[in-house]
Specification:
Helices cover 82% and strands 0% of the residues. With 403 residues, it is mainly α. It has a single domain, classed as Up-down Bundle (Growth Hormone, Chain: A), CATH 1.20.1250. The longest helix is centred in the N-terminal third of the chain and has 32 residues, at 13-44. The two termini are 32 Å apart.
Length: 403
């Protein structure tokens, strides 16, 4: 397949299948997430529940992702991915059924969020390892950036679909779309040709395998600083998305339509950032670039959090979307490139633990603070702190300047 330079990874059949399946599934996920976030905000009346749901979904990743990475280096990866997707589809169907029956309260929402996160804790490092095993090593940055593109394209389109469905078909239609969307990624995983995980040099227990991975990351200056940065960025950067429904409803007073437009604007900027990152490839100076991108993200998000005008907020979030995906895609690529094949699952699970582990903790703390201080101060304050940390690293971190 002939493809433009920024679509290099699409030349490989297995990558195209995986990308397409993941994109369609992500569309369904975002459609449901928007509907569910708005449902929690409008019917349950406490912004803390939004943070609590985020915590319930991501906490299992903190607890079990390291195990998932070690398993990904030892077990058939297709089996892990298929099992996880089927379980997640079942949980989504249960959520929709409870809503239709009128029994969807905060407790079942939290329980199903936890179970979904548990399934993802095993599949997330496996998916990342598979994603870069179906392209040549030189195309890893492009493959990672295009994966960010599909995620953020779905982030832009999914809320639009959710807005239309909420207006015309109600919340139930959003749940149905998510359940059906899982079929796309299940078919893709079934059809791709997966290389087997690298054989370990010697028989190891799971505990020793995990220990070797942790030791390797800690003793690698590059992987250590990238992992620490990932933890800080997710802790401070993700409350924005969690509390956008509150900003739309209570600050801008633009309702569900305004919320979906804010999320779509953020997603549109993210698409631009992903395309630019895919085109950039393995260019020099990526360490400085990702730190500068975090600075821009922090400043523009701070301004958006205090804006009182819908269109100004949308414009600021568009810029924030460009910046954050440039930073996260570059960060992910650098970790992938510095992870040896025999340890890729474990290295990516440690990075994923830092990246995803910061999200529930940041969301939970933000939820507690939002009650007292309001969403603008909390979201703006978190992202401002991220900008300060990135700025200090830009000045002082010799390791980041060499990447």
């Amino acid at each position: 397949m002939n493809a433009p330079g920024f679509l290099q990874a699409f030349r490989h059949r297995d990558y195209r299948l995986l990308w397409t399946g993941a994109f369609l599934s992500s569309l369904g996920t975002w459609t449901q997430d928007v509907a569910l976030a708005w449902l929690i905000h409008t019917r349950m009346g406490d912004p803390f529940y939004l943070g609590l749901r985020s915590f319930a979904a991501d906490a299992p990743l903190v607890a079990f992702m390291l195990v998932g990475g070690a398993v990904a280096d030892r077990v058939d990866r297709r089996h892990i991915l298929l099992t996880s997707q089927i379980l997640q589809m079942t949980f989504a169907a249960t959520l929709g059924t409870l809503y239709v029956l009128g029994h969807l309260g905060i407790v079942p929402i939290l329980v199903l969020a936890f179970l979904t996160g548990l399934a993802q804790s095993q599949s997330a490092p496996t998916y990342q390892a598979v994603l870069t095993s179906v392209v040549p090593p030189a195309q890893i940055p492009n493959a990672v950036a295009l994966n960010s593109l599909q995620f953020n394209l779905s982030r832009m389109v999914g809320p639009v679909i959710a807005g239309v469905l909420l207006a015309r078909g109600g919340t139930t239609a959003c749940f149905v779309v998510n359940v059906v969307s899982f079929l796309a990624v299940i078919v893709a995983i079934w059809r791709i040709d997966l290389p087997p995980p690298p054989a370990p040099a010697e028989k190891q227990t799971l505990a020793r395998s995990l220990g070797d991975g942790l030791r390797f990351v800690w003793e690698s200056p590059r992987l250590r600083v990238l992992t620490i940065l990932a933890a800080a960025a997710s802790f401070l950067g993700f409350p924005l998305v969690t509390y956008l429904p509150v900003i739309a409803g209570d600050v801008l007073h633009t309702g569900a339509g305004g919320y979906s437009l804010l999320l779509s604007s953020f997603g549109a900027g993210a698409i631009v950032g992903a395309v630019a990152t895919a085109q950039r490839g393995q260019a020099a100076g990526r360490g400085r670039l990702l730190l500068l991108a975090f600075v821009v993200y922090g400043v523009t998000t701070l301004a958006a959090a205090f804006s009182r005008h819908q269109y100004l907020s949308m414009a600021l979030l568009f810029v924030a979307g460009i910046a954050v995906v440039t930073a996260y895609s570059t960060l992910n690529s650098l970790v992938q490139e510095n992870a040896p094949a025999a340890m890729k699952g474990r290295v990516l699970s440690i990075y994923g633990l830092a990246f995803r582990g910061g999200q529930p903790l940041g969301g939970l703390l933000a939820g507690l603070l939002v009650r007292a201080l309001g969403p603008s101060i909390v979201v703006g304050g978190f992202t401002l702190l991220l900008a300060v940390i990135a700025g200090l690293m830009l000045r002082r971190s010799a390791e980041m300047k060499t990447l």
